TrEMBL record:
Residues 12-80 form the HTH gntR-type domain. GO terms for molecular function: transaminase activity. It holds the Pfam family Aminotran_1_2. PROSITE patterns: HTH_GNTR. This is Aminotransferase class I/II-fold pyridoxal phosphate-dependent enzyme. In the C-terminal section; belongs to the class-I pyridoxal-phosphate-dependent aminotransferase family. SUPFAM superfamilies: PLP-dependent transferases, Winged helix' DNA-binding domain. The keyword S-adenosyl-L-methionine does not apply. The lineage of its organism: Bacteria, Bacillati, Actinomycetota, Actinomycetes, Micrococcales. It comes from the Bacteria. Keywords: Aminotransferase, DNA-binding, Pyridoxal phosphate, Transcription, Transcription regulation, Transferase.
Length: 451
């Protein structure tokens, strides 16, 4: 079925009117997922409007997620999109290498400090940040942003919550945002749902590239989302030289919002290097506790310039969206406990050691893996990741294809992201052998030979 066959027909003389007409047909069930909209030329002639008007209407619908474009396959009404997420694959019997999770055994037990966080109830109208936690967090963030003349704190329900709110208070739909390519799944989803236009910036072993950032700024981006350490999925961390070069580029664009997501912070064995210079006007540094205190501790600290903090605070109105003071007190009690901090340091060393050990096993099997920083390995294959993943499934493994993280860089589609820190030595040895065999089989298929 097409919209040409659907009464009432699409109507309107402006892009907004045409888009609203299509939305109305979808809401009334007269257009359903998979239905094709008329070609641009056909609808423009029927409505007696310029073709660019229909193009703009279809673009609005695509950005809102109402339609999807298939090139020569036309423009189709979209279904509910499946957006890749971190976490376990439901119902699989395979050994899951795609979780992106920290090791549950290395997450500190909150029971040891719970008795210390119970206090009087917090009522409407009180400060949204717990005072003791604010004092500790201010010192923590100030150590990272020593060159900033002013710094204000905001507490949000995790790093993704902070990024979504930061972009929402600064941007409008269709604004361009520079993001790393390959990109973190959550960031990709935030951009899609917000209707922002992603401008990919390539990532190498030192992080976001200078040429890529310069090109993104030339393209008119209004915000940048950067990962200074343990970039997900590649594990790259900014070097001091790369961070300095990026700061130099950004010096000419002081009002572009720079959001740094230092999600691995206390677990990282790499130094923190910011791309925010002392004269930059709009910036935010986010540090979530989810990797070391657990994903269920939905809390992140955001340090930012005063203007950004003020705008962000407006989106965290007391009584609706503040972060629980009990949760803040619990985080503070854990993070100021010497035994817990020792546990976090040991956890970081464990992730680094296990990733390095598995990377070495892969290298010994002929797979050029390299352990960087973070919870995962980003493994180059020299073959299509989807095909390699299918062969791994036959051997009992479920891996995450690099295609899920790609914005524009085709090379990422020949990578797998593997969460391996919880493999036993025997499992890691078997994985190295199986992955090598899967790559060989995928290459044979690509060459037209029997696998």
């Amino acid at each position: 079925m097409t919209a040409l066959d659907t009464p009432p027909a699409i109507a309107g003389s402006t892009a907004t009117d045409i888009a609203e007409s299509v939305r109305g047909l979808v809401e009334r069930g007269m257009l359903v997922p998979g239905d094709a909209l008329p070609p641009v030329r056909t609808l423009a002639e029927r409505l007696r409007v310029n073709r660019n008007t229909v193009v703009a209407a279809y673009r609005h619908l695509a950005q809102a997620g109402t339609v999807v474009t298939r090139g020569r396959g036309g423009t189709l009404i979209a279904g509910s999109p499946r957006m890749p997420q971190e976490g376990f694959a439901a119902g699989t019997v395979l050994r899951d290498l795609g979780t992106g999770n920290p090791d549950a055994a290395l997450i500190p037990d909150p029971a040891r400090v719970l008795s210390r966080v119970i206090g009087r109830p917090v009522l409407y109208g009180e400060p949204v940040i717990d005072r003791e936690f604010e004092t500790w967090a201010s010192a923590w963030m100030r150590q990272a942003m020593v060159d900033q003349p002013e710094l204000r704190l905001t507490i949000t329900g995790g790093a993704s919550d902070a990024i979504e709110r930061l972009l929402g208070q600064s941007l409008t739909r269709e604004d361009a945002v520079a993001v790393e390519d390959p990109c973190f799944l959550s960031t990709m989803n935030i951009l899609r749902l917000g209707g922002y236009r992603a401008v990919p910036v390539p990532v190498d072993h030192e992080g976001m590239t200078v040429a890529g950032l310069r090109a993104a700024l030339d393209a008119g981006v209004r915000a940048i989302v950067s990962t200074p350490r343990a970039q997900n999925p590649t594990g790259a961390s900014l070097s001091a030289a790369r961070a300095a070069a990026l700061r130099a580029v950004l010096a000419e664009h002081p009002y572009v919002l720079v959001v740094e997501d230092d999600h691995f912070s206390l677990l990282s064995e790499r130094p923190f290097h910011t791309i925010v210079g002392p004269e930059h006007e709009r910036w935010a540094l986010i540090r979530s506790v989810s990797k070391f205190l657990g994903p269920d501790m939905c809390l992140a600290v955001t340090a930012s310039d005063p203007d950004t903090a003020a705008r962000l605070a407006l989106r965290l109105s007391p009584g609706t969206t503040w972060v629980s003071h009990l949760l803040q007190r619990l985080a503070h009690a854990l993070l100021t406990d010497d035994a817990v901090r020792d546990d976090i340091r040991r956890a970081g060393a464990h992730y680094a050691a296990r990733n390095a050990a598995v990377a070495q096993l892969l290298q010994d099997a002929g797979v050029p893996a390299h352990a960087a920083d973070g919870l995962n390995l980003w493994v180059p294959l020299g073959a299509p990741a989807r095909a390699v993943g299918e062969h791994l499934m036959r051997r009992g493994w479920l891996a995450r294809s690099g295609e899920e993280f790609v914005l524009a860089g085709a090379d990422a589609a020949q990578h797998l992201r593997l969460t391996v820190h919880d493999l036993t030595d025997a499992e890691a040895t078997r994985l190295a052998s199986d992955l090598s065999a899967a790559i060989d089989a995928a290459r044979s298929m690509e060459a037209g030979q029997p696998s």
